[in-house]
Amino acid sequence: MLCNLISIDLIFYDLRFTITNIYLHGSTANKTLNALVNTPADPCEAQIYCGDFNLHHPLWSLDGAPAPSIAANADTLAEWILANKLEVINSPNTPTRRGRRGQRDSIIDLTITNNTVSQGNLILEWESTSFGAMGSNHNSIGWKFTICPPKDTQPPEELMRFVIDMENQDKWIKAITRLLKENPPLQIYNSTEDIELGAWSILKAMSNATDCSMKLTKVHKRQLQAPWWNAACSDMVATLEHSVDSKSRSSALGHLRSTIRTARRNFADCICLQVSPDNIFSLTKWSKGERHIPLPPLVMDGRTATIPDDQALMLKSVFFPTTAPPVDMSPLGIPVLATRAHHNITANKIASALSGASNKLAPGAFGLNYQLLKWLFESHPKSLVDLYNACLIFGYHPKCLCNALVAVIPKPRKPDMLAPKAYRPILLLETLSKCLEEIMAARIIFEIGKHNILPYTQFGGRDNLLCVDGGLALCHNIYAAWLHGKFASLLTLDISGYFNNVNHSRLMS
Predict the structure, then answer these.
(1) pLDDT at 335 over 80
(2) What local confidence, expressed as pLDDT, does residue 182 receive?
(3) Which residues contact 340 (CB under 8 A, 6 or more apart)?
(4) Please, which domain of life does this record's source organism belong to (predicted)?
(5) Is pLDDT at 383 greater than 60 in this prediction?
(6) Angle between helix 231-241 and helix 246-273 axes, rounded to 10 deg
(7) DSSP secondary structure string for all residues of 8-32
């Protein structure tokens, strides 16, 4: 694929069509055109070719315009169009390039279709207009597709999420207070069924309170491509589009560029003013922006998955196999330590866990982020204290808190993005569950350090021994070997799906 010749295959229901964008310019024009005309296309599929061809020919010239000088490439393109029974759908009365400094208007930006497109009337309202050209002498070209879905096709349900607005805090607290009063959680938990019921009642109350007080928006709603754009930029664009001569157009274009630079600088200054020393590194994430790109087709064992449902099933079979691999349950020789008594979870421990939690973390299936859990704890701390202590006493984690959304993200620097193993899952749990897990994890890490349960050769999963320390220790051993004239070798193991395939029986033994 050439950089000046790019094709996109699209499938809508049972209709498959291809849009090919082409740009003939400079030293690569001949190579690009030859690649286009020498690549056969399936005549049974809808084919649309569009772009800047930079060629003049009577086949697509303006009505009433003088006969253009014809280059060899123009004849090659015209012969290819006629031989393949293609059609140039440009209007012969509408130029696509506006002449400047004595040049004539012309048609050099073409939209070419095959019989499948023409007979099916797939393209309507083709237009070429100077509005949207942003000062370019090439017009903005657009058209509409007309694709009729099958009669029994149901439109997919739109995924929605709540927008947590800080200004609605009082409204949310009033709603949660009313709901917990109408259906209060248990104060004394006598069984695991009571714990399940209590956790569910809290989740339901939080969800209903959010529904009463917060607005809904679409998931992955298209964000503004340029959040820095302001009214001054729009005014300058209008001035540029209404310029009638080259002098005023050049002046308006210069003012537009200056206005855009000012708007972007002011927007960046406002972002920097909102950053405190505690979250200074959030600027690096903000500067990268957000990308919402659908998964490409996935291929595994000769099967190809293109629609989201099929892709989800394929990824599920890779991430979460139905049968666990066999595990040797023989003793590992680890000494068994005496069981130690636990102490209850206090409100201070919950407050400490919530204080360091980010409100921007992705929520679980109920759409309840940490901000809502903090509001619940501020207004009704006893409900969380009672539930968490009951989970601790019975050694039980509610099943309703084990449900998770699985978000799939690509692994960095993978050469083949069609393989399911090029992606990794991220589990989005309920914040009500993550808070309890953080409290218990902190308690376990403390016990590990106090009683020296883990060897010091393990880095990570314990206080004051990070993976960075492991790297420093490794470098020290390598340099020590070199100092004594020895060779150093390193063997690393990458266990596929380690966390998803941990054997719980082996872990608990």
Answers:
(1) no
(2) 92
(3) 447
(4) Eukaryota
(5) yes
(6) 170
(7) EEEEETTEEEEEEEEE--GGGHHHH
pLDDT the model gives residue 477? 94
Q: Where are the domains of the chain?
A: 5-145, 162-219+299-323+342-453, 231-288, 460-509
Cβ neighbours of residue 289 closer than 8 Å, sequence gap 6 or more = none
504 CB neighbour count, 10 Å cutoff: 9
Binning pLDDT at 50, 70 and 90, where does residue 224 land? low
Domain spanning 5-145: which superfamily? Answer: Endonuclease/exonuclease/phosphatase (3.60.10.10)
Q: Which residues contact 446 (CB under 8 A, 6 or more apart)?
A: 463
Place of tokens 């070209």: 141
Reading the block at residue 311, the tokens are 């892709």
- CA 46 – CA 33 distance, rounded (Å): 20
**Which element (helix H / strand E) includes 217?**
strand 215-218
The answer to whether the pTM exceeds 0.90 is: no
Percent of the chain with pLDDT over 90: 42
Contact assessment for residue 49 and residue 79, using Cβ atoms and an 8 Å cutoff: no
Residue that has been written with the tokens 């007979």 in this structure: 119
- Reported as a single tens digit per residue, the pLDDT across 368-377 is 999 999 999 9
